Amino acid sequence: MESKNAKIVTCVAPVNIAVIKYWGKLDEELLIPLNDSLSGTLSTDFMRAKTTIMVSPTLQENKFWLNGKEQSFDNKRLDNCLKEIKRRANQELPILNWKLSICSENNFPTAAGLASSAAGYACLVSALAILYDIEGDISSIARRGSGSACRSMYGGWVHWCKGIKEDGLDSIAKQIAPASHWPEMRVLILVVSDGKKKYGSTEGMKRGVETSELITYRAQYVVPKRIEDISEAIKKRDFNTFAQITMQDSNQMHAICLDTYPPCVYMTNVSHAIAGLVHAYNSYKGSNKVAYTFDAGPNACLYLLEPEVEEFVSIVNYVFPPSDPQGYFQGMPLSMKDIPQDIK
Ligand code: DP6
After folding, report:
1. For 113-170, what is each residue's pLDDT tens digit?
2. pLDDT digit string, tens, across residues 237-271
3. Whole-prediction pTM
4. Nearest protein Cα to ligand 1, atom 1
5. In degrees rounded to 5, what are phi and psi of residue 287?
6. Which domain of life is it from (predicted)?
């Protein structure tokens, strides 16, 4: 929308949940990853970032609000995104020299390991790209804000290729299949804690690169084949294989976090109990029907197909009663035999 001289743009952007994790950077400044990663982008109906940006010749200084609180504009990642956008813009644009007012909000807990920075930077960069008329791929700009943000620039199933160029311009995200390709796919988020993480992913992966031997092994020998195999499983809609790779990859990321020195412990006893419940459910069903994956926090993201949702949610509610989130301490079932028949 244009009013007088000011220009205002509002965008929303979704969260993405990685099934092959981005963990470790080759370049800390450019946010070039050690390995490729792959994720599913959620619908903006439930978890999303929303950003409104105004540029106007009457603004005296740049301002930035996140969830209603004013933030410092002196932020390297924000600055890198802005610089790259302005570098690609038509240099004749008068608005290039105007000040900005940025107002961003998430409708889910921020910095709790629920990909808030991914949605946030994807949203910010989309809005900036509209304001400054940028064309072409902008996922490499979103990447400069937060690595995983580049994957939120596309819907459906998205592959972030680490690229080979030193300037990171080919470190971009690409959609491998739209959401409509697998319409029965659902994501359940079990919020174990909505508090701020002890240490963020940036810090955790930096320490991992410095101290873990497993991290380089993973990037070199494990991830390339996993990306190939999971892409194939997605193309064939083979949930059993998709789920196995997803869970193994989450476990490997957290194994690296433990191999980091001092270790980064993101999963809690409740997270492990959820993973145990998923394995018990899958073995009771005879094949993988639910897949868990954990980011840099204790909350579980579960991929499952629509026909499974009702039964699995009722089991989760039985094992972890909402009014008693620590309920599993008083009797976490060791196998599906401990779940009453009428729950299933
Ligand atoms: C565990 O994108 O938050 O969610 O690039 O340092 O901002 P920075 O890290 P960030 O890392 C996310 C890591 C992850 C796994 C993933 O989403 O692939």
Report:
1. 666 689 999 999 999 999 999 999 999 999 999 999 999 999 999 999 999 999 999 9
2. 999 999 999 999 999 999 999 999 999 999 999 99
3. 0.93
4. 295
5. -160, 170
6. Eukaryota
Q: In whole numbers, what is the pLDDT of the chain averaged over residues?
A: 92
Lining ligand 1 with CB less than 6 A are 18, 21-22, 31, 37, 117-118, 146-148, 201-202, 295-296
Here the ipTM equals: 0.99
Which numbered atom of ligand 1 lies nearest the CA of 37?
Answer: 18
**Which of ligand 1's atoms lies nearest the C-alpha of 77?**
7
Q: Which of 295, 299, 301, 303 to mutate to test the pocket of ligand 1 (most atoms within 8 A of CB)?
A: 295
Express each pLDDT in 180-192 by its tens digit: 999 999 999 998 8
